[in-house]
Amino acid sequence: MATSHIFPRMHVSYYVTDIAQTVHFYTAFFGQEPVKQKADYAKFVLDAPSLIISFVQNPERVQAHFGHLGIQVETLEELTGRLQAIKSKGLPVLEEMGTNCCYATQDKFWVTDPDGVQWEVYYFHADAEFNDPHYQTQEASACCMPPAQAAAEAPAQKELTFISLNSLGITAPEAETCTPGGGCC
After folding, report:
1. Which fold has domain 68-168?
2. What pLDDT, on a 0 to 100 scale, did the predictor assign at position 64?
3. When comparing pLDDT for 3 and 28, which is higher?
4. DSSP codes, 12-70
5. CA 134 to CA 137: how far, in whole Å?
6. What is the CATH number of domain 10-58?
7. All structural domains of the chain with their residue ranges
8. What percent of the chain is predicted at pLDDT more than 70?
9. Confidence of residue 167 (pLDDT cuts 50, 70, 90)
């Protein structure tokens, strides 16, 4: 259970299909048990990142494709540590190292909860002049999200890795992808 309180902190609440599956996933993802759990509700209070997140079981109100949630980490070592911890819990992981997303060079990985909510954990290296080409093939609303089909089809404990052109030292011409203020990232 979280012991210190960092304010201000963010609160997020969303609807889920199955509270037991959700608690199982988020206990593994966050590395801690919920601070409150009822038959149709669970709440986690996190110190790093400073976040209160709750889940309400109500399958009729679950909405697909709202975007994604993310956690930016301070160092590459923290990213590597979180990635290894998630893998050790057996959650399917989609890695993107050295990718250009939302005009920023990042190392990141993704996990998807039982209702399809995607979480991005990333380290920001620097601003970039273009997005990786695989982001150009997606709808504008999907910018900065891994392909949902690939994430959904990723078998448990199998690691998928995207290799970006930028990480290979290949530059691509700047292409129109997300527009500033367009809601991606």
Report:
1. 2,3-Dihydroxybiphenyl 1,2-Dioxygenase; domain 1 (3.10.180)
2. 78
3. 28
4. EEEEES-HHHHHHHHHHHHTS--SEEETTEEEEEETTTTEEEEEEE-GGG--S---EEE
5. 6
6. 3.30.720.120
7. 10-58, 68-168
8. 68
9. very low
